[in-house]
Amino acid sequence: MVASAIFITDLAGKAIISRNYRGEIPLTKAIDRFAKYLAEIEDDAMKPVFHVDDNGDLMSDEDVGSTGVGGYSYVYVQHNNLYLCAVTCRNSNVALIATYLFKLASVFKDYFGTLEEESIRDNFVIIYELLDETMDHGMPQSLDSNILRTFITQRGNRMANNDKNKPPVALTNAVSWRAEGIKHKKNEIFLDVVEKLNLLVAANGTVLHSEIQGAVKMKSFLSGMPELKLGLNDKMMFEATGRANQARAGKSVELEDMKFHQCVRLARFENDRTISFIPPDGEFDLMTYRLNTHVKPLIWVEAVVEPHKGSRIEYMIKTRSQFKAKSVANNVEIIIPVPSDVDSPSFKSSVGNVTYLPDKDAVVWKIKQFHGGREYLMRAHFGLPSVSASDTGDSGDKKGKGEHSWKAPIAVKFEIPYFTVSGIQVRYLKIIEKSGYQALPWVRYITANGDYQLRMA
């Protein structure tokens, strides 16, 4: 059981629209009690869930847990100048109610552009239809706008054909994320394996932290109701299917913290690690994963900072790509922090373009294409009023005003196509549809930077 009734009020608790699904509570009385709660309770003491007894008095959580205590429970969320509230007299799932209210607000926003008091008053008819279709006798139904639009039009008018007035099959079967009857002139599916590398490297070259965050993204343009099976070089799958030798030979990866789109059959995956699913139409994330593994820096950067007599400071930056020569990193940006009071910049680099960004206190070295196994140099000279002759004495004391500014880590941005740092591979992508059409699967791999930083000496 979820909700006995739903109502929407303004910020004072005055009802704008309501729907009593079960007829087991006096709705007017319940709405008045909600308005009283808003008026009586200070903002910092308000709770998104509260309970009242049969007399309308607030109940403590201990009283609610006692056997035989009646009353009502309220769950509400605020959106702009509105409250969306559900009330129940049953032992209901509060998390489910709150999720329903948030998703209902998203549906309204999708239909009306904005969700506020005026848009509610201008769309009573369609809102009543949506309230009836998204909840049945207190139980939530589909809250997918794409599905709802197949039988509730933008203007809130139902189609005249009685057959079309029936809810689509997607509301009543297990595949709520995909409507039936989808047709494409060309059946294709695009699969991108995107990995982002989070890395923190100490000044002496020691990797302090490395983590790979990956996602399998899909764009599906397939007709009908296709069944897809995706095979990866997953270590646990190899072991489950008796191919432990392949796992030991280093041809597999051990994925952690895997999360799937709702279309994936989790029972099948847990049984034999097969990723089987009926995809939504269009773009979606099939799965995400994480690997905590030691990774050497794909792009290594060394920095030597030298303050000089005469109020000058010089940077010598050396960068090296530590991946195979056949791969290319695109749109590389090496972001070097500099003291906030530098001036008169001049640069010399063996490749790319160098720009000083005074608003960010940084120098950005851009290399459009960085081939594997290459090494490049860049020198930067600045005037630095905060460096005096005493800062560069024989004692080596360099405690000038700007020292801490150049101690911030160097950040690197990049994107390497056709490459995965984890070694994950798509072994197969099978597409099965009862009409027997041929479909074209396209697979692409991309590795990019996440939070990628290298500390300077």
From TrEMBL:
Residues 186-455 form the MHD domain. The keyword Ribosomal protein does not apply. Keywords: Membrane, Protein transport, Transport. It comes from the Eukaryota. It holds the Pfam family Adap_comp_sub. InterPro entries: Adaptor_comp_med_subunit (IPR050431), AP2_Mu_C_sf (IPR036168), Clathrin_mu (IPR001392), Clathrin_mu_CS (IPR018240), Longin-like_dom_sf (IPR011012), MHD (IPR028565). GO terms for cellular component: clathrin adaptor complex; endomembrane system. Coiled coil: none annotated. The keyword Thylakoid does not apply. It is found in: Endomembrane system. GO terms for biological process: intracellular protein transport; vesicle-mediated transport. Belongs to the adaptor complexes medium subunit family. This is Adaptor-related protein complex 1 mu 1 subunit.
